[in-house]
Every structure is written in structure tokens, then in C-alpha cells.
Amino acid sequence: MLLDTSGLLCLHFSTEPLHTQACAAYQKAALRLTHNCVIAEYVALANARRFSRASVLTFVVDLLSNPDIETVWVDKPIHQAAIELLLFHQDKTYSLCDAVSFILMRDRGVSDALSTDLHFEQEGFVRLLKSAH
């Protein structure tokens, strides 16, 4: 599965409403994939939500050193493909980070995203984190 920004937030912070669901999905996953744009967005989101900076940075360091998580470092071809995807889908509000995720997921044959973001469903992927209401 792809670990998205919102999924990492739910996984890391037990105060998040979907924390238990995120932990269960994470444990079940045979593949865990993320990329440096997600990590950058995660740090910014956690900062905006006023979570402890030390906790956030420790989590990121642990994530990057975790042998069970593959972190892709986005290069120019992936970045350009993501921009092309955004140009093609100008009717959507996808972020550049979303577009990079979609490109990587297609390239790797990954269908599931640890995310609360509806954009994954709009692009044909499975969003694993949904609230009960």
C-alpha cells in the first residue's frame, strides 16, 4: 500500500479518529511504499496542526530508516509525469504530491492507499481510511 500524508498522521497520532483503523491496515500490508513529497507534506501538515515538532521529526527519521517501508526519492521523470497528470486532470483538485503518488502506484501495481483523501478514489485507487459517518 502507499502511505499517504493523512495516513501517516492517523498512524502516528493516537488522537486521530482513524488511528486504530490506520494501525490495523498498516499491520496487514505486505508492501509499504511512500515518497519524499509525502514526507515533506506530512511535516508541513503536522506543523500546521500544531503537533509536537520533536515527535514529528522522530517519526520521520524512524520511517526513513524502517526496512519495511520503501521510500522513493522523486526524480525529474516522475515529477514531470506528475505534472502531466495534473495538466490532464485540470477538473480535479489533486495536489502535486497526490499526482506523484498516483504515478508511483500505477508504476508499482499498488491499488491501496493508507489515506483519508478522496482523490485516491477519484483516480481509481482504494482509500483505506474512511470515517463511519
Give a short overview:
This protein is mainly alpha-helical. It has helices at 5-12, 19-28, 36-48, 53-65, 76-88, 96-108, 119-122, and strands spanning 2-3, 33-35, 70-72, 112-114, 126-127.
Question: What structural keywords apply?
Answer:
single chain; 133 residues; mainly alpha; Rossmann fold; three-stranded parallel sheet; two-stranded parallel ribbon; 7 helices; 56% helix; 10% strand; globular; VapC20-like; VapC toxin family PIN domain ribonuclease; PIN-like_dom_sf; PIN_dom
If you had to describe this structure to a student in words, what would you say it looks like?
The chain has one domain (2-127): Rossmann fold (3-Layer(aba) Sandwich). Helix content is 56%, strand content 10%. The protein is built from seven helices and five strands. The strands form two sheets. A three-stranded parallel sheet has the order 1-4-5. Strands 2-3 form a two-stranded parallel ribbon. Helix 7 (119-122) links the parallel strand 4 (112-114) and strand 5 (126-127). The longest helix has 13 residues, at 36-48. The mean pLDDT is 96.
